[in-house]
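ugh ok fine here u go
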Amino acid sequence: MSELKSYTLAELSKGVTESFTVRITEEKMAQFCALSGDISPIHMDAAYAAERGFPGRVCYGMLVASFFSTLAGVYLPGEHCLLHSVETKFAKPVFIGDELTVTGVVDEVNEVFREITVKATVTNGDGKKVCRAVIKAGVAK
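structure:
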């Protein structure tokens, strides 16, 4: 795990950027299945996924989107964060073994409401955008 960032509202401005990488593993897929209860065969059965035209089991979209929580709670703003909303769009499927880069860029700082807006993306190893989000997060300090 990386070092917990602790940006304050005063330290944040449009353009501040943070990113990290994560690999999708069998273990993460199994943990997400156990946590969510989602046993859809597209995620569980490689033969089923192949019948649907995919090269392997498709990663849970919400597993990919869960890394937006990591982005906000660990990196941007980090320690002083309280998520208000995450609006997510899924662009391309993700597969076991994919290395993902999660990047967030501060788009707006609202000092009245002590809230930031972060535009976030998840890209795969081929540089293709697989997921994007608009994150609104309160900043406690």
